[in-house]
Design a protein that fits this description.
With 310 residues, the protein is mainly beta. Strands 1, 2, 3, 4, 5, 6, 7, 10, 11, 13 and 16 form an eleven-stranded mixed β-sheet that branches. The chain is globular, with a radius of gyration of 19 Å. The relative contact order is 0.21.
């Protein structure tokens, strides 16, 4: 099926945010999304904006081009939230960067490798990535990824038409518990190892296809405690975004709000010498060109007391 859509959306960058009036809005930011490192921490106040960021309120269904309006109402931003309040399913592609396949010493797959994350894995920017007690034994890793948000129902889509079904793009961190993912504990349980609550931070903004014409020409980078860990380009994907959408839509309907995580580049922690795993209190930043920075702090469940979250 091929959608019938007007040419342009009324917004180009969309944030979902808590206004300083205590209400949640969708909006178009009126300034670059910048913030201090201190905004990401282990407290309830994580994500509070101490700058003058404001946004024009966007009314209506963001999945509808004709029923969405950017108003003249400007609201001060208190906290930036995930661009989507709910994700029905994360469809994730493993081993999709050539240099990442090289560093893992794994063969290039003939088709996209699919695993999933549940909706409860979603986490806001700045909020803690909570590492479960069973994953605290030096195994939790970062994976910066380009996230593709589906905008219209699609099934059996041709590669040449695939990008017409995209609502926009954002940044994701595919947090992974390596010992459960590998053979040490989980016998290759990719879904279980990546599906814990908060293991899919998403944000900070949703950028429309009008601004990002080619999703496979974007610099992608991860910084951990100020040190660059991943620095690559989405052009290194083995299967590009149109190919992924076409492959996943074979006899399967992709629905509005579904999120596709497109894989991570080289530089992941578990393949470093010595390996680098996320520790309690670490500050991780995932960044993609023309989209922005996704900040989160790591919290070990056994150390993340109720007092810290007040």
């Amino acid at each position: 099926m091929r959608p019938s859509m007007p040419a342009l959306r009324p917004w180009t960058r969309l944030i979902r945010f808590l206004g300083k009036d205590g209400k949640v809005y969708n909006g178009e930011p009126q300034a670059p999304l910048t913030w201090p490192k201190a905004a990401a921490n282990l407290k309830f106040s994580a994500g509070e904006q101490d700058n003058t960021l404001t946004a024009k309120v966007v009314r209506g269904d963001i999945f509808s081009r004709s029923a969405t309006t950017v108003t003249d109402t400007v609201v001060p931003v208190a906290k930036i939230l995930s661009p989507l309040p709910h994700v029905p399913i994360f469809r994730c592609i493993g081993l999709n960067y050539a240099k990442h396949a090289q560093e893992t010493k794994m063969p290039i797959p003939p088709y996209p490798v699919l695993f999933t994350k549940p909706s409860m894995a979603l986490q806001d920017p700045f909020k803690p990535i909570v590492v479960p007690t069973i994953c605290e034994n030096n195994q939790t890793d970062f994976e910066c990824e380009l996230a593709v948000i589906i905008g219209k129902p699609c099934k059996n889509v041709k590669e040449s038409e695939a990008l017409e079904y995209v609502l926009g793009y954002t940044v994701a961190n595919d947090i992974s518990a390596r010992k459960w993912q590998g053979n040490n504990l989980g016998s290759g349980q990719w879904t279980f190892s990546k599906s814990f609550d908060t293991f899919a931070p998403l944000g900070p903004a949703l950028v429309s296809t009008e601004l990002i014409k080619d999703p496979n020409q974007l610099r992608i980078k991860t910084t951990l405690n100020g040190k660059v860990m991943q620095d690559s380009n989405t052009s290194d994907m083995i299967f590009n975004v149109p190919r992924i959408i076409s492959f996943l839509s074979q006899s399967t309907t992709l629905m509005p709000g579904d999120v596709i995580l497109t894989g991570t580049p080289e530089g992941v922690g578990f393949k470093r010498n010595p390996p680098v795993y996320l520790q309690h209190g670490d500050h991780v930043v995932c960044e993609i060109e023309n989209i922005g920075e996704l900040h989160n702090t790591v919290a070990y469940e056994s150390k993340f007391s109720a007092d810290e979250n007040k």
